[in-house]
Amino acid sequence: MERACGGVSRCGSSRTVAAAAAGERGKPTVRPGNSSPRAGRSSSPSPGRGSGNPSQSHKRHLEGVLNKYTNLLQGWQNRYFVLDPELGQLQYFLNEQSKNQKPRGSLPLIGSSVAPSDEFPFMFTVYAANGELFKLRACDACERQLWMNQLQLCARRHSDSSGCRTSSSTFSSSFTGRTRSFSLLPHPAPPCSSINTQRQNTPHGHGNPGSIITITHHKSPTSSQRASNHSPAPLHQVKEVMSQAEGQQKNLLNSIESLPSRGPLSSLDPDLLLLKATSAATLSCLGECLSILQHNVSQAARNITTHTQGLNTGELNLSQLLLFEESTDTEDNEEEDLGVLDDQRSIILHLLSQLKLGMDLTRVVLPTFILEKRSLLEMYANFMAHPDMFLAITSGTTAEERIVRFVEYYLTAFHEGRKGAVAKKPYNPILGETFRCSWDVPRERVRPLRTTSSPCPVPPASAKPGDCCRLWFVAEQVSHHPPVSGFYCECKERRMCVNTHVWTKSKFMGMSVGVSMVGEGVLHLLEHDEQYVFTLPCAYARSILTVPWVELGGKVSICCAKSGYSATVTFHTKPFYGGKVHRVTAEVKHNPTNTIVCKAQGEWNGTLEFTYSSGESKVIDTSKLPVIKKKIRPLEKQSQYESRRLWQHVTAALKTGDIDTATEHKHQLEERQRSEGKQRAATSTPWKPKYFIKEGEGWVYHNPLWKTNC
C-alpha cells in the first residue's frame, strides 16, 4: 500500500515539475515551504525541487490550473488554484495572470476533508469544516492524487496544530470528541484517525484481509452517549451503510491481493494500487465527515429546540426558523461581456426601429442574450454585500456619526450590487416571485472604517472570535403592472431594519436606455428612535449597439427628521465630451445650523474620499472591501416561486451559451404568468402578496421589527 501511495505521489510530482520547467501551461507547480505564496512564482522550479527535504513535505506550495464546478453550471470553468500551506487555505484566481490580485475565492483547510469522486473523470471534492466545498477536476489521475495528497497533508497539519492550541477551550473539549466519534472497527484504536497498511508474509504473498487496511476513529464514552442521544435515524443508517462499505472494501482488497504478482493483471497493477489508495482515503474522509455531521446535527438540535420555544411564546416566526437550512452561497455569476455580436446587433436594430424616444419599455419583451444571470430581487440583496458596515450604523454615539456611517454604507453598496459596469439586465421578477437570504456577520467586524488620523477602533469587549450577528433579507415582486418590488432587511439583535419599495420605470433614449428607481426606503434605528428616509439613483445602459456599459445618475437624498441631519448624494453621468465616468459627490448637513459636517467624492465603483468638519479624512477603496457572502437555502428546499429555483433553467442555459433554450424557458415563465393573471381577472380575484402589504402609496413588510415588542 505504501508503494501505491508513494508511486502516485512521485508520478504527480515529477510530471508537474518537469512540465513547469518546460513552461507547460495547466500543470501544477510545487514549491518549497519557505517560499512566500506570492513571491517567486514566476520563476520555473528546477527539476526535483518539489520533492526535497521530507520534513518540508507538509509545507509545499502547490499551484496550477484545475477545472472548478459552479452551481447550476452545466460544465466546468478553468481557474488557477494556489495551495498556501502557511495560511492553510486553497485559493483560486480567474487565471494565472491575476494570481497577484485578490483571490476570487478561498477555502479554509483546517478541519477539511478531501475525497475522490467518480461523478466525472479525475474529479475530487474538498469539503471545508464551515460547510463550503469545491468540486474540482484534474487533467489525469496522477495530478489528482498530487493535489489530494498535498491538501490532506495541509489540512492534517493545521487541524493538529489547531487542536493543540485550543485544547483548553470549551469548543475543543466538546468538538474534539465528536470529530473522531465514528468507529468502523470494533477493536481499540489510537486517539487519531489513521490508515494503517500492513502486509503479512505468507507462502503465497497474501496478506490478512482484515489487517491490510484499518480505518479507525477513537470515540470517547461521553461523545458516544451524546451521539446516541442526539443523532437522528438517517445518521444511524449512514453508519450501517459505511460498515457495509468497509466490508466490501475488505473483500476488494482480498481479491486484489489474491492476484498473482506477475501477468497481464497482477496485484501490482498501477490502476489497482490507485484503487486501493483512493478507496481507503474515501472511507477515512467519510468517517471524518460523519463525525462533523454528528456535531452539527446535535448543535442544530439544541438551537432549534431553543428557537422553537421562542416560536411557542410568539417571539419567533417561521421565516427565521428557515434560516437554519441556509448555507453559504457559492454561485459564481461573473458577467463577461465582449460587446454585441453581429447577429445580436441585427436583432437590436430591428427592436430599435419599432421604438420611439421616451417610450416606456416596461411592456417590451427584450432579447434573452442581454439578460444577467440573476433576478432583480437578488440584485437588491447584493446591495447588502457589506453588512458589517450596515450594522455599524446604529453603533454611532451621536446622530451626526450615525448619518455619516449611513452615507458611507450607501456609497459603498452599489459596486457589488451592480457587479461592475457590464450592461446586462437582471431578470424581470414575475408576480409573486420571492428571494430570501441572510448573512452571519462577525461581531468584531461591526465597526466603522478607521480614519487616516485615528487608530482602528477596538472591537467591543463582549465580541468573541466566531461570534456573529444574524442579518436576514426577504424581497418580493408585489406588482407586475406597474413593476414594483418590495424588500426588507432586519437584524433583531441590533434593533435595526430597512424597508424599501421600488418601481422600475425604463424608457428608450436613442442609443441608451434609462431606468428610474421610483420609490423610497426607510432605515429604522429603534435603539435611537430614528428613521432615515432615502431614495435610489437612476441607471443608464449606454452604447447599446457597440460595447454596452452602465452608469448611475441623478440626485438622491437621505434625511432624518428627528435629528435634523440630511445628506445629498449626486451621481454624475459622463459628459458627451471628456469627463470621468462613475463620479459621485455627497454632502452631509445639519439643517438647523446649516453646517456641513462631511463631504465625499470619488467613484462609486472605485475610490471614495471622505472629509469631515473636524479636519479628519479617510479613503475607502470599494474594490478592496471584504465581501461577506450571503447564505441561501439549496434549490431543492426552495419554494417554486423563489428566484434561484424559478429561473434555474434560464440561468443554466445562459451559462452554457444556449440562448435558444434560455429563451424557451423564459417564455414558459412569462406565459404562465399571463395565464394566471387571466384566471384571476376572470374570477375577479385580487392578487395578495405573501410578505408585504400596501400602505398608502408604498409597500411595507407585514411583520416589521418596529411593530413588535423587542
Write the layout of secondary structure elements.
Layout: H1 2-21, E1 29-31, E2 61-69, E3 76-84, E4 89-93, E5 105-108, E6 113-117, E7 123-127, E8 133-137, H2 141-165, H3 170-179, E9 194-197, H4 209-212, E10 213-216, H5 221-230, H6 233-257, H7 270-312, H8 318-321, E11 327-328, H9 342-352, E12 371-375, H10 376-382, H11 387-391, H12 399-417, E13 425-427, E14 434-442, E15 468-479, E16 484-491, E17 496-508, E18 513-525, E19 530-534, E20 538-542, E21 549-560, E22 565-572, E23 583-590, E24 595-603, E25 607-612, E26 617-621, E27 631-632, H13 643-646, H14 648-655, H15 659-683, E28 692-695, E29 698-701
**Beta-strand share of residues:** 25-35%
Can you tell me the CATH architecture of the largest domain?
Beta Barrel
> Level of helix content?
25-40%
Q: Major β-sheet, in short?
A: 13 strands, antiparallel
User: What integer is the average pLDDT?
Assistant: 74
Structural class designation? alpha+beta
**Terminal Cα span:** 62 Å
Number of helices: 15
The CATH topology name of the largest domain reads: Porin
Please tell me the total number of domains.
Answer: 3
What would you call the shape? globular
- Spans where pLDDT lies below 50 across 5 or more residues: 1-25, 34-58, 165-231, 306-319, 450-463
Instruction: Report the count of strand segments.
Output: 29
User: Radius of gyration in whole Å, from Cα?
Assistant: 29 Å
What's the CATH class of the largest domain, please? Mainly Beta
